[in-house]
Amino acid sequence: MENKQTTMETTTTTRYYVGDLCYVMGEAWTEVCSIADLDNDEWEYELEDGRRFILFSTAYGDGHYNDLDGNPYAVDSGTIGAIKVDDIRDTESLFTTIGNGLGHIHEFPAEIEGYDCSYDEGAISIYTVYIDTADDDDWEEEEEENDQ
Questions:
Q1: Are 25 and 19 in contact (CB under 8 A)?
Q2: What is the pLDDT averaged over residues 74-83?
Q3: Which one of 90, 101, 113, 120 is separated from 16 by 20 to 30 angstroms, measured CA to CA?
Q4: How far apart are CA 56 and CA 125, in angstroms?
Q5: Phi, psi at residue 85, to the nearest 5°?
Q6: Residue 1, domain member (yes or no)
């Protein structure tokens, strides 16, 4: 009789906050701003304490943007990024931000790296989350109202 072994593949997931990092970084936001160079093709950064994050500029700066699933993202720093939930020290701000629908927690099957992300003319892709910040009807309507 043949002995067959079955191997079960386990998939671990990592939870990330995706949204404007200014809402959840607390005192580290100053360091984020000092090391982020949004004028180049780099979007992966590391804080002095070793925490890593991804950060992109939006096409139109501050505003409200939606991902392909309709989840809204409020932006007050002109940027959208991602950081592991476990790396957010200011958990009260995280819960408030999520509770107010300003950003969202997403589970990804692995740690995201720079190559899992892209930016193309305002379209931000962070692993499986896609936010087109260049196609913002609310922003265009606000601009038209301001022009009148």
A1: no
A2: 96
A3: 120
A4: 10
A5: -60, -40
A6: no
